[in-house]
Amino acid sequence: MHEIDDVRFGVITISTSRWKRYGYVRGVDFIPMDDESGRFLVDELNARDYMLIPDDILTIVESVLSMLKDVDVLVTTGGTGISPEDLTIEAVKPLVDREIEGFGEIFRWLSYQDVGERAILTRTFAGVIDEKVVFCLPGSLNAVKLGVKIIKSQVKHILIHLREKQQ
After folding, report:
1. Would you say the C-alpha torsion 134, 136, 139, 145 has a positive or negative sign?
2. What is the pLDDT tens value at each position of the chain, 167 positions in all?
3. How is the chain split into domains, by residue range?
4. Which residues contact 66 (CB under 8 A, 6 or more apart)?
5. How far is CA 126 from CA 18, 37, 132, in A?
6. From CA 167, how far away is CA 20, in angstroms rounded?
7. Cα 155 versus chain centre, distance
8. Architecture of domain 9-166
9. How far apart are the first and last CA of the chain?
10. What is the 3-state secondary structure (H, E, C) of the chain?
11. Which string of b and e fits 3-42 if b means at least 16 CB within 10 Å?
12. N or C: which end of the chain has fewer CB within 10 A?
């Protein structure tokens, strides 16, 4: 096994309401002031790239595949709820080679400790696309903080396993 010193992160905020206000945004220096979750992710993960896009399946697919060309790990925030407009997981899931089911399970279990039975509404997702990792988080800042805690504790371990298979 080898150590992974530099994990390259990317962040995509998926929010049609913000997209209507700001349009398509790309770059860590251009995060809208009201995107607290996106800003938190970029800062905490030292992300190298950021996008703001609408909750549209084709746009999500294209943006995910584009960003994965330059990062090891992609974290999305937003568009994971249960309304018909929440399409993040539906867009990402068909792209995935392997799901990481435990991520959603531990996320909901930890959410349950905080919000009780309301945790059943929590939709998160994680998987591997071409040996890169994608995590889909809800849009709320509290959910993003919880997701970052889990991701930071396990991402190097996940990447080590993925990279071992490539050698």
Report:
1. negative
2. 344 458 999 999 999 999 999 999 999 999 999 999 999 999 999 999 999 999 999 999 999 999 999 999 999 999 999 999 999 999 999 999 999 999 999 999 999 999 999 999 999 999 999 999 999 999 999 999 999 999 999 999 999 999 886 55
3. 9-166
4. none
5. 24, 18, 11
6. 45
7. 12
8. 3-Layer(aba) Sandwich (3.40)
9. 10
10. CCCCCCCCEEEEEECHHHHHHHCCEECHHHCCCCCHHHHHHHHHHCCCEEEEECCCHHHHHHHHHHHCCCCCEEEEECCCCCCCCCCHHHHHHHHCCEECHHHHHHHHHHHHHHHHHHHHHCCCEEEEECCEEEEEECCCHHHHHHHHHHHHHHHHHHHHHHHHHHC
11. eeeebebbbbbbbbebbeebeebeebeebbeebbbbbbbb
12. C
Which residue is it, tokens 């746009």?
59
Total residues belonging to the chain: 167
